[in-house]
Amino acid sequence: MNSGEELAPAVQSILETARERTGGEPGDVSVSARSLPDALARAESDGRVPVIAEVKPTSPTTDGTREDDPAELARAMVEGGAAAISVLTEPTHFGGSPEALTQVREAVDVPVLRKDFLLREEHLDVVEADLILLIVRFVDDGAHLEELIDGARERGFQPLVEVHDRAELETALEAGADIIGVNNRDLGKLEVDLGTFEAVAPDTPEDVTLIAESGVSSPEDVRRMRAAGADALLVGSAIMAEGDVTDGTRRLTTAETNTDAESEMETDTETQI
User: Fold this and answer.
1) Is there a catalytic annotation at residue 162?
2) pLDDT value for 67
3) What pathway or pathways are given for this protein in its record (predicted)?
4) Which of 120, 210, 234, 254 could form a disulfide with 52 if both were Cys (CB 3.0 to 4.6 A apart)?
């Protein structure tokens, strides 16, 4: 593990389970990936906030389990404007599976992220996805991270490298990451602070695709993260908690255009008065 700080017990349990999990065989997976930067650019050109909506049946930080068909959920999220989909494949703590990711990727035409806790190169050889998540804090050192990034790219994956502070950002950049997510959730205390992204974003090079992760639950949060420099937002619980995930996704993907419409309405009213 990269950091000497203690992890929350729930996160420690996730990490221990990940260490015990086996993977596939080299050569099992070769991907022709759908480009995430292109998908984000399409969302921007369409006037949508680029949102990566997450299919997450459950988690240690949420109550209950959602048992909807993952492909149906993903299609509903794309209908709501999602630029990409994230799928939890961790089975023990999140109720995910590689099979669910395969179903989702067959059901939608946007990039699909495999969100899991991947510690060794064999963990990459399990299922086809467009992107895979690598968490700096869970990796032994920068050299190991670079090996995982290179291994992911050799298979065709786009690696999304997750950081939480400036030191982890530096590690990610030195390892060659060009898609970086800043997790607003502290894995030591499981507390969420949107200020985390705001603190890390200014040190990120402009040619890096920067994603705000965790804690985004309202249009106001969306606008705050975008103002701080987020190219996209990864949102799970806030959308999964909605009865209608299409509406829940659309509420976030239209956060900027709705503000413009509201301002125009206010201006029209003032002119009439």
Assistant:
1) yes
2) 73
3) Amino-acid biosynthesis; L-tryptophan biosynthesis; L-tryptophan from chorismate: step 4/5
4) 234
